[in-house]
Amino acid sequence: MKAEFIEALEEIEKEKGISKELIFEALEAALISGYKKNFGSSQNVEVDVNKETGDVKLYAKKNVVEIVEDELLDISIEEAKKLDANYELEDIVRVEITPRNFGRIAAQTAKQVVMQKIKEAEREIVFDEFINRENEIITGIVQRASKNNILIDLGKTEGILAPSEQIQGEEYNQGDRIKSYILEVKKTTKGPQILLSRTHPGLVKRLFELEVPEIQEGIVDIYNISREAGSRTKIAVYSNDENVDPVGACVGFKGARVKAIVDELYGEKIDIITWDKDIKEFIQNSLSPAKVVKVEVDEKEKSALVVVPDYQLSLAIGKEGQNARLAAKLTNWKIDIKSESQYNSEIHSDEELIDNIEN
User: Measured at the alpha carbon of residue 325, what is the angle toward residues 184 and 165, in degrees to the nearest 5?
Assistant: First the structure.
């Protein structure tokens, strides 16, 4: 190892932020490994790397004993005192054993191991960076597909968009810039694994936080989000300032803010509704854009009966029940929707039944 090697380590430390001490530790371990591999020795070996010049010396550590049982591990007291008169029994003696051609063989082995250690250190740095970004939004570039997974270039590493986290019908073409939600960061033997999502409600939440200054400032808060990715989302918001309309803030001037989010989600419909502490009002709002005539609630069962005009029934329920389903998720209440004629018919039937019983 020459001075150029030390300079190279210093460059690595500057460019990659990897401690030179960490590399020296890896280097010493590599040299010991290289010696044992190439010289087949079971000696207790120690390496000394001069951190200024790069010179390497190899030592065998031997126990000072009266009777030598294993020449590789022991040295007699007489031989030890020839090296230094101060040695006593049970001391440890270092005897230089650097082979003539050790430098070339060991350096080759060391290079491989040191590079591996550098990779591990880089992976650790990436893991530390991303573990603190779980549940955040990140922009990346679509790289390629692998076994139905979409690999996203995140700069220092790649993220994985699994099939279950991809929006149905959405195309991911190489070079596309997309925003994703960091679902989970795992530590694996191959380095950090960044699991991304395009379907998680958290993606919508983070997009609104990016687009709406009032949310960033805490003037407007998001109460809850229910989402069927690629199709429709309902988001309930409320204002901490009576002078600020939470829905208007989220929609933006001429719909600019919500349009930016819809564009990012490739046309996913977004209903922005006002959260209300009065559950009847909140349930009524949650079924937007349908108009509601009446809401009856059962607090104990957390269930509600909602009455809508006959012509609004299909709108309230939504295609394949989507509007009602999203409203139930948003409010965390069971919602049963009936038209006015159905509701009146049932009341009329109940009244007749009561009359018959009384008569």
Answer: 25
pLDDT for residue 107: 67
Asked if residue 103 lies in contact with residue 1, where contact means CB atoms within 8 angstroms, the answer is yes
Domains in the chain: ranges and CATH: 1-129 (3.30.1480.10), 133-197 (2.40.50.140), 201-275 (3.30.300.20), 278-358 (3.30.300.20)
pTM for the structure as a whole: 0.73
The Cα–Cα gap between 38 and 40 comes to 6
> What span, in angstroms and rounded, lies between the C-alpha atoms of 171 and 192?
26
From the CA atom positions of the chain, what is the Rg in Å?
A: 35
Exposed, middle or buried: residue 256 (CB in 10 Å: 0-12, 13-18, 19+)?
exposed
Is residue 289's pLDDT more than 70? yes
Mean pLDDT score, 257-268:
94
Q: How confident is the model at residue 246 (pLDDT cuts 50, 70, 90)?
A: very high
